[in-house]
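ok trying again, last paste got cut off:
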Amino acid sequence: MKLLIIIPAYNEAENIVNVVENLKCNYAMFDYVVINDGSKDDTAKICKEHNYNLVDLPINLGLEGAFQTGMKYAMYYDYDYAIQYDGDGQHNPIYIEGMVKRADEMGLDIVIGSRFAQKKKPCSLRMLGNSLIETCILFTTGKRIKDSTSGMRLYNKRMIRKLATSMNYGPEPDTIAFLIRCGAKVEEYQVHMNERMAGESYLNFTRSIKYMFHMCSSILIVQWFRKKGI
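nice, full thing came through this time. structure:
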């Protein structure tokens, strides 16, 4: 079984060494690739100095472009699974083997590393947005995804090919909803996520509101009219 850990990174100079060294020292059985998304800081320089496996994008393509670059890499090198993994230290690699096992045992296309598969959501504005997106997915697919905004997702070979070859597919809840409607088998796997090690999250209050509105409208309207098929 070949598994690739895809690490999209934008301005993660303060975090990337800890993230990659943890994987190299403790999970050397898995391959990884850092997708530097046109960072303005020293992310690429640090990766090159440490001889990390790196794809250095010349411009910032955004998460969607960096993610798809990773999927193209996974497809080209014929990986069985690819896992989306944040470069800020929030994701914990101890769950990867369990997610792969769940996918194998249940014949799943996607396994979401979920903070809320077995736990309740805390009360916050961000979690309210998460719950609204969850409701939209449930309404359009009949499937309850409790942590649709989780950035830790495992994809099988069929999904790798789909996501690598379709230009408008990004690693977002609306894509997950669309893939479920197309017949993809998706389940959640309980994980714990760490606090960001350094730097600031892209999603501030204003962007979080915009993101929630965009995702809900996309799930309810745009994705509904997409042509199905995997």
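cool. The chain has one domain: 3-225. DSSP finds eight helices and seven strands in the chain.
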